[in-house]
Amino acid sequence: MKRIVFFVLAIIAATMFVSAQQFIGVNLGYARPITRLNQPIVDQEKTLTPTAYNGFKVGLVYDATIVKGFGFSIGLNYTFGANTTDWKQITASLYPQERTRGQYHQLEIPVDWQYKFEIAKRTWLLLYTGPTLQCGLSLKTKNYINDGKQEQVNQKNPIDDLYSEQEVSDYALKRLNVTWGIGAGFQYERYFLRGGYDFGLINPYLSQSFTGKDIYTRGRFDQWQIKLGIYLWEF
Q1: Distance of alpha carbon 112 from its chain centroid, rounded?
Q2: Cβ burial 23-50 (10 Å sphere, 16+ → b, else e)
C-alpha cells in the first residue's frame, strides 16, 4: 500500500516540472462509486455483494501538454454518493422488513496521461489512463426496520412513518485507496467532457472481529464517472 501511494505521489511531482501548453479549470459531474465486497465468514460461503452509490463529483483540474498531443491532467475532486435499498423481508425476526441507506464521501487526486487528437481548430478528442489516489472521509450506512404498524400509515405515502432507525455503523476501511482509470473525452476551446471507469488496485478493507474470530474482508472500490468542465485560465 505504501509503495503504491509513494509511486502515485512521485508521478505527480515529476509531471509538474514538464509542460508546454497549460490549462487550469473546474469540473462537475456524475459519480457512481461501487464497493465490491468478498467477505469470508466462518462456516459460510464467500459472497460477492457490490453496492453502487449514485452521486456527484466536483473539483479542480490542471491540464498540460508536453509535446504535440501528449500530456497529462491532475485534479483534486470531492466525491459524494448515496444509496437506498428496497424494503426486503427479514427472516426469523419480529419485524417483517428492513432497508439500508448509505452515504459515501471522499477526496481524490487523479493523475492521467492523455493524448489529444486535434480534429478541428481548437477541437480535440482525447484518450487517457492513469492512477487516482483516494482519501476516504466517510462511508456510513443506516439500517431501518419496519415497525409493524402498517395499518396506521397513510395509504398515499406508504413509506412515511413506517420504519424506525435501528443503528448507524461505519465500515472498517483503510483511509487511503488507489485506483487505475481509463477513459475518453472531448474538448472544444476551453470546454471539456470526460468519462471513464476506475478499477480498484488494493484491498481497502480492514480485518474485523466477529464473535471472537477475525474476519479477513477483501474487496475493492471501483467508480464510474463523467465530468463536464471549463478551463478558466490558459498559459
Answers
A1: 16
A2: bebebebebbbbbbbebeeeeeeeeeee
- Residue 8, φ and ψ in degrees, nearest 5: -65, -45
What confidence tens digit (pLDDT) does each residue in 22-60 have? 899 999 999 999 887 765 544 444 455 678 899 999 999
Q: Supply the pTM of this predicted model.
A: 0.76
Domain ranges (residues) in the chain: 2-82+106-115+174-234
Is 1 in a helix, a strand, or coil?
coil
End-to-end CA distance of the chain: 36
196 contacts 223 by C-beta, under 8 angstroms: no
CB 197 within 8 A of CB 223: yes
Beta bridge partners of 204: none
